[in-house]
Specification:
Layout: E1 2-8, H1 14-29, E2 35-41, H2 53-61, H3 78-81, E3 84-87, H4 90-100, E4 108-110, H5 123-126, H6 129-150
Parallel strand pairs: 1-2, 1-3, 3-4
Helix pairs in contact: 1-6
């Protein structure tokens, strides 16, 4: 089983969107039993809060529910527990590396490294949940292809 942790600053927008988009992709392929998917924050600001209303609305628009999700914080032990820890921007990567105490196994990546590269803008600031969804979808699609190619 491949274990993936999506991470962003607060775990109410980007990482939550990635968790549920990726879960939907995996379910549609019938490989849910092969991949464990979760998400977390690097900060404590939103711990215990549900996903942002914009995230919930965008996911609902594409037929994906994120009901029951509440923000949690990444811990040092997550580095050992997960095969891949996927951040949304370089600030996330810096904080993930700090929380983990380094990245000796090369498990920490940007989501868009699996697609066209770059960072996923935080819709908390931009208000553009459509753009975030497009980037998240693109990155998740590339990540899924990467996992499928490397698990054979």
């Amino acid at each position: 089983m491949t274990k993936i942790l999506f991470v962003c600053h607060g775990n109410i927008c980007r990482s939550t969107m990635a968790e549920f988009v990726f879960r939907d992709m995996v379910q549609k392929l019938g490989i849910s039993g092969e991949v464990y998917i979760a998400s977390a924050a690097t900060s404590t600001e939103e711990i215990g809060n549900p996903p942002h209303p914009g995230t919930r609305a965008k996911l609902a628009e594409v037929g994906i529910s994120c009901a029951g999700k509440y923000a949690v914080q990444m811990t040092k032990s997550d580095y050992t527990a997960y095969d891949l820890l996927i951040g949304m921007d370089t600030a996330n990567i810096r904080n993930m590396t700090r929380i983990s105490g380094g990245d000796p196994e090369g498990k920490i990546h940007l989501l868009l490294d699996f697609a066209n590269g770059g960072a996923i803008a935080d819709p908390w600031y931009t208000g553009d949940f459509d753009a975030t969804y497009r980037d998240v979808f693109s990155g998740c699609k590339g990540l899924l292809e990467h996992i499928q190619k490397n698990s054979k």
